[in-house]
Amino acid sequence: MSPFFLLSLLFGLAFGQSASLCAPSEYIIHVEKRECAYCLAINTTICAGFCMTRDSNGKKLLLRSALSQNVCTYKEILYQTALIPGCPLHTIPYYSYPVAVSCKCGKCNTDYSDCVHEKVRTNYCTKPQKLCNM
């Protein structure tokens, strides 16, 4: 193995996270309740982007600490609440949603993130839409 290749490999392992492109990104959530007349389109931010990961194919050659499967996840979150218009009096017309303030590359925490990206349904409205800019 050439010294240049070995040095490049060590540099990449040490400083790979700095090349990650994980940041808050604009996203629209569509929210509706069966009892309410409207669907609410909420502009918010989510964490999205690329995080450096290391291929586990070389796991026998590398230390366990050198292997990582990081995802773009929340560093700081705040919650906001929106009022869904057109709801009858007996219905709670509020919806709380997360807003990504800052993001990081790290292990996925199932307490507040969906770590398996399986699309259950599309993000759309079936009722007339109202836009909410928070």
Automatic annotation (TrEMBL):
Positions of the Glycoprotein hormone subunit beta domain: 21-125
One Pfam family hit: Cys_knot
SUPFAM superfamilies to which the protein is assigned, alphabetical: Cystine-knot cytokines (SSF57501)
Signal peptide segment: 1-16
Major place of residence: secreted
Localization per Swiss-Prot or TrEMBL: Secreted
Keywords from the UniProt entry: Disulfide bond, Glycoprotein, Hormone, Secreted, Signal
GO biological process terms on file: estradiol secretion; G protein-coupled receptor signaling pathway
Record carries keyword Glycosyltransferase: no
Gene Ontology CC, one term: cytoplasm
InterPro entries on file: Cystine-knot_cytokine (IPR029034), Glyco_hormone_CN (IPR006208), Gonadotropin_bsu (IPR001545), Gonadotropin_bsu_CS (IPR018245)
GO molecular function: hormone activity
Assembly, per entry: Heterodimer of a common alpha chain and a unique beta chain which confers biological specificity to thyrotropin, lutropin, follitropin and gonadotropin.
Similarity comment text for this entry: Belongs to the glycoprotein hormones subunit beta family.
Protein's name in the database: Thyrotropin subunit beta
